[in-house]
Amino acid sequence: MATKEQADALVLFGATGDLAHKKIFDALYGNAKRGRLKVPVIGVAADDWTVDQLRDRAREGIDTFGGGVHDEGAFATLAGALSYIGGDYRDPATFTRLAQALNDAGARRPAFYLAIPPSMFEMVVQALQAAQIAEGARVIIEKPFGIDLASAQELNRVLHSAFPESSIYRIDHYLGKEPIQNLLYFRFANSFLEPIWNRNYVDCIQVTMAENFGVQGRGRFYEEVGTLRDVVQNHLLQTVSLLAMEAPNGPSAESLRNEKAQVLEAMLPLRREDFVRGQFDGYRQEDGVAPDSDVETFAAVKLHIDSWRWAGVPFFIRAGKNLPVSATEVRAELKPPPKNVFGDQALAGSNYLRFRLGPDVVSLALGIRVKHPGETFAGESEELYVMEKTTEDLTAYERLLGDAIAGEALLFAREDEVEAAWQVVDPVLRDHDPAIPYAPGTWGPAEADALMPEGHSWHEPAP
Ligand code: BG6
Predict the structure, then answer these.
(1) 315, 452 in Cβ contact below 8 A?
(2) Is 161 helix (H, G, I), strand (E, B) or coil?
(3) How far is the C-alpha of 257 from the C-alpha of 109, rounded, in Å?
(4) How far is CA 286 from CA 92, 215, 298, 329, in A?
(5) Which of 261, 222, 247 is CA-nearest to residue 418?
(6) Which residues line ligand 1 (CB under 6 A)?
(7) pLDDT, tens digit, for every residue of 121-149?
(8) Distance, CA 334 to ligand 1 centroid (Å)?
(9) Is the Cβ–Cβ distance between 184 and 242 less than 8 Å?
(10) How far apart are CA 463 and CA 25, in angstroms?
(11) What integer pLDDT is reported at residue 166 of this predicted model?
């Protein structure tokens, strides 16, 4: 069971690195603004920096990548909480100094944030143990949790050598997003949905995560991952697990994660023919990208969940870079009425629930058919907005970092969930068709349409 004990220090490995610069300082500042930053923050990295350099870096990161420093009092809280230890991770003396710093701060339950490349995890975890500061501590890590099933299992083995599962906080920032949490709430706080939310009424579920920009200078990183690893294995399968899971017994982290793990385990491994890969024209000219790269920047998959509730209902997932819009949406299409009484042409797919998950707004709409006014019984499709709200300015990182420090594990991915999700994609990581070129600003290769059953098409989210 997760402990829900407040950590009493945050140790940020990789404090001078990219992730800290772009995301973590901003999240800490956000927590400071809300009065939630109450622990010392010890930055650790190899650079020979002073704490003032780290403070400047934090301010610059917040100004450039976050909303900017507008509350000097909150920034002073963050700056005051910061300290810095420069040292090589291979040198035990670095960890002796860290142990001393924790001791001086009276910290017995530190949270170690490993904002460093996964290849360094084992070394750092072993050094924490050797310095006797792993016990009672928790560890926070970021995706990628491995690059395939075997490496994810290996990563979990490394982490478990020093930390029990209940002390491991795996950040999938999608789970910190307001609209994703609304999916969970909406499903289990309403009774009208349950009778139709199954194979008897749902025809198919589509999830589209479109981005209207390319790899933004991250070509080298992207070459290692591709779309399936980058967003489908984690963000989108997590989203599908919330859509498809059974009701949890209660709001505890373990109840929720048990049900998510169960539905992820019921997902059938993808087959080659379930996966269409695309690559936008121009990707190979990006910095750090091989001139003959076959890495996909677009993925469309057809997923089956072999469960009582979902047997036979296809889940279509599509994600890509350089698509026409930036938007993430779920659309659950209901089966048409059993008899087409009015001979309507457009009944298929016209009853649906559409959840807008990003960017910035949470909205929910219902697709219906209504009679067109006039003499004949002719109909038209309408969409009813059930709700539309802008999301709070609490960022996903801010929420997740605050939760990890507070010991609230609900929004973090558990070992079994992560491994089950890898099991789904693992077979097609290597055994797949070549990536098909597509023009930037289009919805990817036309071959993705062939995944759809007759009479269905991909839903295209509006900007
Ligand atoms: C990240 C991926 O995990 O999620 C990026 O590495 C992607 O490629 C990003 O752009 C999308 O997140 P968000 O919060 O901007 O929708």
Answers:
(1) no
(2) coil
(3) 24
(4) 40, 8, 16, 28
(5) 261
(6) 211, 230-231, 358
(7) 999 999 999 999 999 999 999 988 999 99
(8) 29
(9) yes
(10) 30
(11) 95
